Amino acid sequence: MIFSNHKQALLTVLIATAIGGVMVTDAVAQSRSADRNSDRRGGKQSSAKAEALYPQATRAEPDIKASPKLGKQLQKMIDSYNEQKLPETRALADEILANSAANAYDKSLAAQLAAQAAYQTDDNAAAKKYLQQVLDLGGLDNNGHFQSMVMLAQLQIQDDETAVGLATLDKYFAESKSTKPEELIIKGQALYQLERYQDAIPVLKQAIAGAGADAKDNWRQLLMAAMSEAGQTGEAVAEAEAIAKRNPDDKKAQMNLASMYMQADQMDKAAGIMDTLYKSGKLTDEREYKQLYSIYANTENKEKEVITVINDGLQKGILKPDYQVYLALAQAYYYSDPQQADKAIEAWQKAAPLSKDGETYLNLARVLHAEGRIPEAKTAAQQALAKGVKNQADAKKIINLK
Question: Total structural domains in the chain?
Answer without folding.
Answer: 1
